User: What shape does this take?
Amino acid sequence: MWQRFTERARKVILLGQEEAQRMGSACVDSEHLLLGLVREQEGVAAQVLDKMGVTLEKVQAEIEKHPSTSPPEPPSAEPKLTPRTKRILELSADEARRMKHNYIGTEHLLLGLIREKDGVAARILHSSGLTLEKARQEVVDYLGPQQSPKAPSAPPPRPPTLDAFGRDLTRLALEGAFDAVVGREAEMQRVLEILSRRHKRNALLVGKVGVGKTAIVRGVASLIAHKQVPDGLLDVRIVHLDVPTLMFGVRDWSEVDQRVRQLLQETKPYRLVVFLDDVHGFGMRELSALHALFVHVAHGNLSCLATTTPDSYERMGEESVLRRLFQVVWVAEPTVEESLTILRNLRPRYEEFHNVVISDEALTAAVEQSQPLPSALPEKAINVLDAACARLKLQVTQPPKEISDLRYQIERIKAEKEIAINSDEFDRAAELRDQQLMLERQLAQKEDEWRDALSNERPTVTAETVTQVVAELVR
Assistant: This one.
């Protein structure tokens, strides 16, 4: 059954494990899955929950009112699925069957959570006015009328192909998900020229691993999203296709063709441009499936952007589809000075994310000292800089022992309180509640003092910090 879960549904389960660990639980229960659904913002379930006013803050507040009965988590243990959570996954699969879907997505997980009536998540959702019937209708409305299982004369419902098999880079660019692309204006202009052609409107970006081929595609998506392109390209929508997920469960390439057609249908009235990253890494099964995609490319139904390495390109025969249908865009490794310019432009984003100050010497050291590392510039220099920032942030943001001790005491008391409640020892539970409230007040005060001290002075990433990181990477 696990193979039928979409990439986003699997991510929800992993996020649920993260929430369980964060909350100190040894098991993943329904409330952790609900938090995962809300955090996975691109899924169908998150859209439905958002429409119903179920936000992350609201769920977290409600969970505090319904403490988990799961035992506290031992140090470094990975949370396991409770019997209730396994039941929810089974109910999700049943919901997918009811809707005649051949996949299990985030929307089915949401319906499974509501059907499992005894969990904390179900109580939270019911208190928010989200009943099973209402949730089903919201899902059907979101996916479109053809998804309704109540219409026997309708064709078999199709999955939300774009959500299941790809990421809309144009939309993500509009939301500010990508860093600015610097020093690649010529390559981006070349891609735009190819997309503007009448025939063979497909670009193959060829360059070493790490030179920034994917960043160029994202840069093109940003230009389109912000209307900085000619009128003929304003309707372009670039979708990063997840080929392994597209391939899952298909018996022959005709089924892949059907999914590609669904993708084309869903993206109307836009002009679809599919992005295939690292085509040299695809196996024989993926390549055979891409035959269905390239048929549409050859007929001009869609355009395609792809990336590969120079060695892989040289091994392609002259009759290779990629050579016949694609225009090559060579992406050279930037010089040290060009890489330094790229890092200077990225510096504000990394300073904001890590809450540090990055010195000019650290930028220079990241570029120069990353030379022995595998991959190419600017990627390896960016990776070194990111690692140096993370190292320094961990060093200065490690909470004091008294805060860690208070957090542990609070979690232990919560667990004891739940045991007392389940044993009908309400006097003991009330006593533990008072202890918990007192410790939480102490913790809030200590955390405020600690965070105020941190905010007064941001640490500086120096060349020495970078040197320490590189020394470990080149061992």
